[in-house]
Design brief:
Strand content: 15-25%
Structural class: alpha/beta
Radius of gyration: 21 Å
Largest sheet: 6 strands, mixed
Distance between the termini: 21 Å
Number of helices: 11
Order of helices and strands: EHEEHEHEHEEEHEHEHEEHHEHH
């Protein structure tokens, strides 16, 4: 269940990205780089078709910086650790990764800009949190469209060519994508009807979540993943939408009592890379990155499914009540959010319509 796409890049001369000197100062070490100009290439294998042509400094060590907003306990980060180990082992130690989890280098809101400008080489992010830059990125948060892990990745595969082309404009390429477990509603009560949402200060992390909250009578509050505990502690929020995995990693039981498994949508965790950073790798190391990305996508897909089951048990073991989504509540939520999909299609245009129509045709909706 790999998330890869066809990706062609023209080599052009770019000035050194702003912030590189600042980043070096923050890291306390200079970032290694492999020199050599590259001709036009297309990522081979799962990232595309064609040949990859790189520099000739095969024996040099390359140091790459990798930033993540999420804590070590999260399965996505555990998968990244395996990805890093794979890169370093498969390259015989020629690739070295300086990894900074838990927003220790950049906040999540800064991650897109950091990888775009080359302040970091790789980043973990959730594209829907950057939908203010591109409505297409909200495809992963369309409510009650995909209803399983397999359907979630089918939707991603359909949307990936368009997303890849859009990211290319920002000098970013997707390496691999792993789904989140389905999005649940965390609250201090069971949600049995739409009115139960009225007045809740409901943490959301993207515009679609905000629209869903408003449609159900809640007050949406935009809060990034790293700020969730503080937002609960200060009374900024008293409920939220997120997955079982993130809820467990954030110790949600300290703040709310009930996990309502309404399965609103399946989000994605994207690992992306600055295009120039990839171009500057020798040809054989480019292939190492591609191959390790394929393995990380496949491994992460199974980890996501396992995490959903395991983390719901973790929530229960820590005193939370875990309940299936109430059928009446889910039906009301589904009806209230139908306009969100139609509005997304209008905003994205023909590409959005094609994505949704293709998905519905393949799933028999």
């Amino acid at each position: 269940m790999a998330g890869f796409g066809h990706f062609a890049v023209e080599h052009t001369a770019h000035p050194a990205p702003r912030g590189r000197g600042l980043l070096r100062e923050r890291l306390g070490t200079a970032l290694g780089r492999v020199g050599g100009a590259l001709s036009t290439f297309a990522l081979a294998a799962a990232l595309g078709v064609g040949t990859v042509f790189g520099g000739s400094a095969e024996a040099q060590e390359v140091q790459l910086t990798f930033a993540s907003p999420y804590p070590e306990a999260l399965f996505h980060v555990q998968n990244i650790r395996k990805f890093i180990e794979d890169l370093e082992t498969s390259s015989n130690g020629r690739i070295k990764i300086n990894f900074y989890p838990a927003q220790s280098l950049f906040n999540h809101s800064e991650a897109m800009q950091a990888v775009r400008t080359g302040q970091v080489d790789l980043a973990e992010l959730q594209l829907t949190q950057f939908a203010n830059q591109e409505e297409l990125y909200n495809v992963e948060a369309l409510p009650y469209l995909a209803s399983s892990f397999d359907e979630a990745m089918l939707l991603w595969d359909i949307a990936l060519p368009a997303i890849t082309e859009r990211l290319k404009r920002d000098r970013i390429m997707p390496l691999y994508t792993v789904p989140w477990p389905p999005q649940a509603f965390y609250a201090n009560k069971e949600l049995t009807k739409a009115d139960d949402m009225t007045g809740l200060k409901f943490r959301v992390y993207n515009p679609i979540g905000a629209r869903m909250a408003e449609a159900l009578g809640a007050e949406p509050v935009l809060v990034g993943g790293g700020e969730v505990p503080q937002a609960f502690s200060t009374g900024m929020i008293d409920s939220m939408i997120t997955s079982s995995a993130f809820g467990a990693s954030a110790s949600a039981w300290d703040y709310v009592d009930v996990f309502n498994d309404v399965q609103a949508w399946f989000g994605y965790d994207q690992i992306v890379m600055n295009i120039r950073s990839f171009q500057n790798l020798p040809e054989d190391l480019q292939q190492v990155v591609i191959d390790a990305s394929k393995r990380a996508a496949e491994r992460g897909f199974q980890m996501a499914k396992d995490a959903h089951v395991g983390e719901m048990k973790t929530l229960e073991d820590n005193g939370m009540k875990v309940v299936d989504g109430n059928p009446d509540f889910v039906a009301a939520a589904r009806e209230a959010t139908k306009p969100i999909i139609e509005d997304w299609i209008k905003a994205v245009g023909p590409t959005g319509q094609e994505i949704v129509e293709t998905f519905r045709a393949k799933t028999g909706q």
